[in-house]
Amino acid sequence: MIEKAATVTKARNSTHMSAAKPRPWLAVRTLCWREVVRFFRQRNRVIGAIGQPVLFWLLFGVGMQRSFRLSEAGGPGQNFREYYFPGTLVLILLFTAIFATISIIEDRREGFLQSVLVAPIPLWSMVLGKVFGGASIAMMQGLLFLVLALTIKIEAGLGSFVALVGLMAVSSLALTSLGFVIAWRMDSTQGFHAIMSVLLMPMWLLSGSFFPVPSLDGETTIPQFLLHWLMRLNPLTYCVGGARRLLYGDLSNEAFYTPSLSLSCVVTLVFAAVMFAGACKVSSHRTAGDLL
Amino acid sequence: MDAASAIDVSGLSHSYGQRQAIRQLDLNVASGQIFALLGPNGSGKTTLFRVLSTLIPVQKGQVEILGFDLRRCLNEIRARIGVVFQAASLDRKLTVSENIRHQAALYGVVGNELKRRETEMLHQLGLSERAYEITETLSGGLRRRVELAKGMIHQPRLLILDEPSAGLDPGARSDLWNYLLRLRDDLGVTVVLTTHLLEEADRADRIGILNEGELVACESPDLLRASVGGDSITIDCDQPEQLADAICDRFSVGAQVVEGTVRFEQSDGHQWISRLVEAYPDCIQSIRLGKPSLEDVFIQKTGHRFWQTLEEVGVD
């Protein structure tokens, strides 16, 4: 019986069964598509990711309008709602991109990730699929929020608007990759929330989103000096700074530092490249959670 | 490696930190067979499954799958094997069809070929009516069928399954086995599965028995049973150690104490019943005669019961 089966196999294997021919870009597309489909099938995620930043923008914008206008932080004549707009835009990208990567933890816990890990695709295509998926969701929400820009005073022409969309896309890729790096080694979403509180929220707060980067002059105190460099070393400062320059044009104000557009674009691109490389690197390590 | 071998393992060892999960394991699985890796929890079968499914790398030893070296030809092997994990690998938010299509895309199956295979697979597994249902709404048995469809959509030559019957009711288990038998008989697919169920292993063409990371036996179920020899005799008594020693001394047979009973295997078991009762009339409370089961094989090869670990029998 066994011998018979083996003989049949040999004959049939040679005629019918050929090896699958994996296509890495097709894998990227299907992994990205899956992220987007999953997102829209979980309505609470859609509401949460855009609801909170919009609420923040409206509440902080209205609540801090008077005090902020007195300090003229974002440039002459700019109110807090306008100043805070690019920061909220980046916050939406950050929230959505990061929460999208939490799906890695769920994928692992539910066992889905195992079947991807044994598929004949290069690691980069698995990472890129997840990152593109998260970034696509972040972009959709960011673009939806950008419609609100019609309600504020902006300087952006069509060219700047297109450039802004490009900057948002690169920022989304960078932030999703960052989320991937963090999420890969996590075995619970609770752990991820802890990282969110101690790393990601401070990173956003120190990006010039909520208050500007103080300039250095003769009267600078040591805390201000430290804050200045902490904020300048934060890659998110350049995502926010670039978006601010594209929305409002020239922002010369000696009291505060805003990175130039070209520097913002270069740093954001490097941030995305480094984070993506980091995501590929960490994904080559198996964690205990991969082995359900 | 034998031309007809689907899997050839030699000297495989694997450890998690200080704990050795597999020790110097040699194994050969011929093509076109259903091969069961049988062992209790902690025997190393899941680690062996992880290595064979390419989920974890080979630490020590040599593994060839379908003629390819596992260390050097990872993607060649992955393109040719199907893997069904014990933990569900389905995306619960996607439909049955979407799950299958997603898996197919990972293996480069697209277009008309995908349509044809998907239709065929859904039909074979009785899922045609469920194709557009979200998988989280399906029963455990149906989900396992979708897992099989995912594992087979790229038409692998070797299908590796980890505890495929876990959580299935008897009906779904029977369906699963019918499908695996069809894969072997109609397509010549080699099927390797891990199981801790003795009755499930009994349906395989060959069984590899794992114990404490070592392969203690590897044969067809019938040959394994025959290796035990004759009938299995089990005696209940108050002092099993003393009785076992007495039987060994007097009759020169390999009687063992297993979970408070004295056991040994001999041909002409019915004659031994009267012989033993006459020899030890005051010691024996009850005596049973049976045909050797796979558990008897396991006991003979390892010296302890299938569900009993070495710690429980007092061996360090």
Describe the 3D structure.
The complex is a heterodimer of chains A (292) and B (316). The two termini of chain A are 35 Å apart. Chain A is mostly helical and 292 residues long. Chain A has one domain (23-286). Chain A has helices at 2-15, 24-40, 43-63, 65-71, 80-110, 112-117, 123-146, 158-184, 189-205, 222-232, 235-248, 261-283; strands spanning 213-214, 256-257. A two-stranded antiparallel ribbon of chain A has the order 1-2. The longest helix of chain A is centred in the first third of the chain and has 31 residues, at 80-110. In chain A, helix 8 (158-184) packs antiparallel against helix 11. With 316 residues, chain B is α/β, with parallel strands linked by helices. Chain B has two domains: 5-219, P-loop containing nucleotide triphosphate hydrolases (Rossmann fold); 228-302, Alpha-Beta Plaits. Chain B is built from eleven helices and 14 strands. Chain B has helices spanning 45-52, 74-80, 96-106, 111-124, 140-152, 170-187, 198-201, 221-228, 240-251, 269-279, 294-302; strands spanning 5-16, 19-30, 34-38, 60-65, 68-69, 81-84, 158-162, 190-195, 206-211, 214-219, 231-237, 256-258, 261-266, 284-290. In chain B, strands 6-7-8-3-9-10 form a six-stranded mixed β-sheet, sandwiched between helices. A four-stranded antiparallel β-sheet of chain B has the order 2-1-4-5, covered by helices on one side. Chain B has a four-stranded antiparallel β-sheet with strand order 12-13-11-14, with helices on one face. In chain B, helix 6 (170-187) links the parallel strand 7 and strand 8 (190-195). In chain B, helix 3 (96-106) packs parallel to helix 5 and helix 8 crosses helix 11 (294-302). Mean pLDDT of chain B is 87; it is low at 310-316. The chains are: A mainly alpha (292), B alpha/beta (316).
